[in-house]
């Protein structure tokens, strides 16, 4: 599978000086097996004094929009898988107690299978990559691998697959990560940075093992991604008011700023927004500033997004270009401290928006040309950090519910390759590859861990459901 999906340039033949340059790192990787044997990653048992997961999640609510918090819990209570998606802070706490080899990478921090997907690269081709970086931070590479693998175990159970089928998807994910890391260790540095996965390669690999119905379902998702652009957003999110385009009102999921801050004089409000956009503009490189300056601000609204992010502030901003048929939708999403910080250390950047953006640049093979950050700004007199990107630009996740067991295996391999490529860019790929080795010891250990952690996730999901029934938390289950 690694050779099939590695659509990057083929590695040049290895030379003696390449071997010599990597020798020290490879030796460190081999030595790390004594510190943290690969088989040790199979273990998972909660500490006796493990913090209550509901209490940990509730602690995140302190800085969130209070009226949106019940939506967050409602979405998390849809299934153990949606709970897992929203419980990155819980797993970060647990991962800090697991073995680690000592090698750090720019971790995604929330590397579950729904945080990888399709989006449009600057050359307008669709690529597959990690697409969520709210929690990114330098951290042990094993944390990302374990969260990704556990997400496949939990998703397989959610789909009703047999234990054997589910384990097959987990093993495919980890095996591909390991084999891909070995491949990246054999490549020159620049080739690693050029490596990326175009969607056409993903479809070709799926067609080799999946039936036509599955392939068509994924092709349908890809076709929708091509159409998921600013014009599509404009048609869905905008209507005309007195001859001017305005974002529709659909509370509480989408609320125009004119409704949220009704008492503020319009000129004062627009002045604040222009200041906000100006600060964001300064984070862009020169040519992107020129492009951004060709658009004018029209309207803004608060939007509810994701599962774990619900309650953080997220603004969608409508701008217009050459005429009334040239819209640009931007999303400004609040950036808080990464859930990894208590265990991996604080960020080196002055704002969390910059942390997210710089982490994304380091990890992604191709990214949004308008990605930037907005430091210390708030419309409620509270300084908050944001990162800014295009709202819809071909972005779409594969619908896991359409995949049969073999399709989930293929998807797992694609995700494993993508995560390995991200880690190879930012970490010591020679040391990690040497640690992993050519055998399947690590793969089997992570599959065992994933099964045990999925059991824990079900217990934590049940605890949140009990908290909702008892009134300890409020959850709205009738909103999507």
Task: Please tell me about this protein's structure.
There is one protein chain. The protein has 480 residues and is of the alpha+beta class. It has 2 domains: 29-225 and 400-470, no CATH class; 230-390, no CATH class. 50% of the residues lie in helices and 14% in strands. It has a 6-stranded antiparallel beta sheet with strand order 8-9-10-11-13-12, sandwiched between helices. Strands 2-3-5 form a 3-stranded antiparallel beta sheet. The longest helix is centred in the C-terminal third of the chain and has 30 residues, at 441-470. The radius of gyration is 22 Å and the shape is globular. The two termini are 36 Å apart. Mean pLDDT is 91; it is low at 1-18.
N- to C-terminal distance: 36 Å
Question: What is the molecular shape?
Answer: globular
Helix content: 40-55%
Q: Strand order within the widest sheet? A: 8-9-10-11-13-12
Average pLDDT across residues?
A: 91
Structural class by secondary-structure content: alpha+beta
Given as residue ranges, the uncertain stretches (5+ residues, pLDDT < 50) are 1-18
Q: Into which percentage range does the β-strand content fall?
A: 5-15%
**Quaternary structure:** single chain
Summarize the biggest pleated sheet.
Answer: 6 strands, antiparallel
Rg calc: 22 Å
What's the structural domain tally?
Answer: 2
DSSP summary: helix tally: 20
Per DSSP E runs of 2 or more residues, the count of β-strands stands at 13
């Amino acid at each position: 599978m690694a050779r099939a999906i590695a659509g990057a340039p083929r590695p040049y033949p290895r030379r003696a000086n390449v071997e010599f340059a990597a020798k020290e790192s490879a030796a460190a990787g081999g030595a790390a097996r004594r510190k943290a044997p690969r088989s040790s990653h199979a273990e998972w048992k909660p500490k006796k004094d493990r913090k209550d997961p509901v209490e940990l999640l509730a602690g995140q609510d302190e800085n969130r929009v209070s009226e949106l918090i019940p939506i967050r819990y409602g979405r998390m209570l849809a299934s153990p898988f949606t709970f897992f998606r929203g419980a990155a802070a819980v797993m970060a706490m647990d991962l800090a107690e697991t073995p680690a080899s000592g090698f750090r990478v720019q971790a995604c921090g929330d590397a579950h299978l729904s945080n990888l997907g399709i989006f449009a690269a600057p050359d307008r081709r669709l690529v597959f990559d990690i697409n969520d970086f709210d929690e990114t931070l330098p951290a042990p590479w094993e944390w990302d691998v374990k969260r990704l693998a556990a997400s496949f175990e939990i998703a397989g159970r959610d789909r009703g697959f047999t234990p054997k089928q589910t384990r097959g998807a987990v093993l495919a994910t980890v095996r591909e990560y390991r084999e891909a890391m070995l491949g990246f260790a054999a490549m020159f540095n620049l080739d690693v940075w050029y490596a990326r996965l175009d969607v056409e390669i993903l479809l070709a690999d799926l067609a080799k093992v999946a039936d036509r119905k599955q392939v068509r379902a994924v092709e349908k998702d890809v076709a929708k991604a091509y159409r998921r652009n600013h014009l599509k957003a404009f048609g869905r999110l905008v209507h005309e008011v007195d001859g001017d385009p305005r974002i529709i009102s659909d509370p509480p999921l989408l609320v125009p700023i004119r409704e949220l801050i009704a008492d503020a004089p319009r000129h004062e409000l627009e002045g604040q927004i222009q200041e906000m956009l100006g600060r964001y503009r300064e984070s862009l490189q020169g040519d992107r500033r020129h492009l951004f300056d060709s658009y004018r601000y029209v309207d803004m609204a608060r939007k509810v997004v994701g599962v774990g992010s619900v309650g953080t502030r997220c603004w969608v901003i409508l701008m217009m270009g050459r005429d009334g048929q040239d819209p640009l939708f931007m999303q400004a999403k609040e950036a808080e401290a990464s859930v990894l910080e208590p265990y991996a250390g604080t960020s080196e950047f002055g704002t969390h928006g910059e942390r997210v953006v710089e982490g994304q640049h380091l990890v992604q093979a191709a990214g949004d040309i308008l990605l930037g950050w907005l430091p210390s700004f708030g419309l409620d007199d509270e300084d908050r950090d944001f990162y800014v990107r295009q709202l819809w630009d071909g972005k779409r996740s594969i619908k896991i519910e359409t995949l049969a067991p073999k399709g989930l295996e293929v998807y797992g391999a694609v995700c494993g390759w993508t995560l390995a490529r991200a880690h190879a860019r930012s970490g010591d790929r020679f040391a990690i590859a040497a640690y992993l080795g050519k055998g399947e010891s690590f793969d089997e250990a992570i599959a065992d861990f994933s099964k045990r952690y999925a059991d824990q996730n079900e217990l934590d999901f049940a605890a949140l459901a009990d908290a909702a029934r008892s009134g300890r938390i409020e959850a709205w289950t009738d909103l999507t």
